[in-house]
Design a protein that fits this description.
alpha+beta, Aminopeptidase, 5 helices, 33% helix, globular
């Protein structure tokens, strides 16, 4: 078990793209979903770059080892009339579990959002990821069962956009 005080957190920059991508690969592997990852270090570097990055990332480290990650971005709810934060990925390495790091990362993401005028957080969880669902519910997040996620990707996405 890792002590909370042994772990530091910091915001990632584009220079951390390899660290971030590696943690995302570790997350996918832990869920037996590695086949779904097509992002590259270059994609992550670009997403973390610029005056307004596409993503923001908090990296948790113990010594030089990355043991946690929170990837998120600002959104806007037209119905609420307010900014929100979308948590895209959260990961805690097996070696760092049990010390409250997941809750700490979530609180830091929310704090970042509050400082930018956000009043809510959204995320999605794979239906079969019961461990993550229990974690979020234990922290007071509630499941919205009145919405479903639709997606269009790849060639179908491009073809639809070309038809406009």
């Amino acid at each position: 078990m890792t002590k909370r005080s042994e772990i530091t957190t910091r915001f990632a920059s584009a220079a951390d793209a390899e660290i971030v991508h590696g943690a995302l690969l570790e997350l996918a592997a832990s869920m037996n979903e590695s086949h779904k990852v097509s992002s590259t270090v270059a994609n992550i570097e670009q997403a973390l770059s610029g005056d307004i990055p596409d993503i923001h990332t908090i990296v948790a480290q113990r010594s030089n080892e990355t043991v946690g990650l929170g990837v998120f971005f600002l959104t806007f709810s037209t119905w609420r009339g307010a900014r929100g934060v979308y948590l895209q990925d959260i990961f805690v390495a097996a070696s760092a579990r049990g010390a409250g790091l997941g809750a700490r990362l979530l609180r830091e993401v929310i704090s970042w959002g509050v400082q930018r005028g956000a009043d809510h957080l959204r995320l999605s969880v794979d239906r079969n990821n019961t461990e993550a669902r229990a974690f979020y519910e234990s922290l007071g997040l509630s499941l919205r069962d009145d919405e479903m996620i639709y997606t269009i990707v790849g060639d179908a996405y491009i073809e639809m956009g070309a038809g406009s």
